[in-house]
Design a protein that fits this description.
Helices cover about 30% and strands about 30% of the residues. By secondary structure, the chain is α+β, with helices and mostly antiparallel strands.
């Protein structure tokens, strides 16, 4: 954990602390940022854990964290805890940070924004990045979320422009240790706005790659429209490619959505549209 960085814990970190207490150990190895950085030696006593900055976390708080398998908690300077969650006045949706054994995902109205079954959000993100086949050119990320796509794209691209509709989602990202580089990387430009409106304002042929990872069709149908795909085609440079995340293409619902997406991408002008089952999406090529 970086010096002075906020402490964020989930049941993954809290349960080993309870084991240490049960075995009467005086120290325990814990990650204090949801597994992002190396584990640290934390002192254990009758009152709880003694965290960096002389923060004391009581056993009652640790037990509360350990019992909440669907929540992440920020630890305050006074030793109190709070769930990382918020409600959006803009979209009337509930956002929360959902723990895994690695990078957390974000729940939007109870729906996870990354694949977590048989994989994890970090590997899910890397599969999208690989399918997009990034270059040193400019990249458009249409839906920021926790910023994992923008963070990884920034490692390979010259500049990443990422768009987030809801400030509430950005608030969750600001409390997520795994999203820290979203706010620190010098080649990431963040825009708050509706992608359907923002993309229309970009100059033609201004991006080498587009990574389109929208919420489900039920939550963001306009981002699956032919009109939006025409804007994606317009802002791509000749020879550019777009990666469109859809979901499990081999499932009944995913396959149905994918067929409509692929047809509309072709109608929008993309010369070739290719299914990428391993990345749960399709790539569309502008020739």
């Amino acid at each position: 954990m970086l010096h002075g960085a906020p402490i964020v814990l989930s049941f993954v970190q809290a349960r080993p602390a309870l084991v240490a207490r049960r075995h009467k150990r005086s120290k325990v190895l814990l990650s204090l940022d949801l597994g992002l950085s190396m584990e640290e030696v934390v002192e254990v006593d009758d009152g709880g854990l003694i965290l960096p900055g002389s923060v004391r976390l009581s056993w009652a708080c640790i037990e509360e964290i350990a019992a909440a398998e669907s929540s992440c908690f920020a630890v305050e300077a006074d030793g109190s805890i709070r769930k990382i969650q918020t409600f959006s006045a803009l979209t009337q949706r509930h956002y929360s940070l959902y723990p895994t054994t690695g990078a957390p995902t974000m729940l939007v109205s109870g729906l996870p924004m990354h694949r977590i079954k048989g994989t994890d959000p970090q590997r899910d993100t890397l599969s999208k990045i690989k399918a997009a086949s990034l270059t040193r050119g400019r990249v458009l990320d249409t839906c920021t979320g926790l910023g994992y796509t923008a963070i990884e794209a920034a490692k390979a691209a010259g500049e990443v422009v990422t768009i987030e509709l809801d400030p509430a989602a950005q608030e969750i990202a600001r409390h997520n240790p795994w999203s820290r580089r979203l706010f620190e990387a010098p080649n990431v430009r963040q825009i708050i706005g509706d992608s359907a409106e923002v993309v229309a304002q970009f100059e033609a042929a201004s991006f080498a790659r587009v990574i389109h990872d929208p919420p489900t069709f039920a939550l963001a149908g306009d981002l699956y429209s032919c009109d939006f795909y025409r804007e994606m085609w317009r802002v791509l440079q000749p020879g550019g490619r777009a990666f469109h995340y859809i979901g499990d293409l081999e499932s009944k619902s995913g396959g149905r959505v994918a067929r409509g997406v692929m047809e509309r991408l072709k109608q929008a002008g993309f010369a070739r549209v290719i299914a990428r089952n391993e990345a749960f999406g399709v790539i569309a090529l502008k020739e």
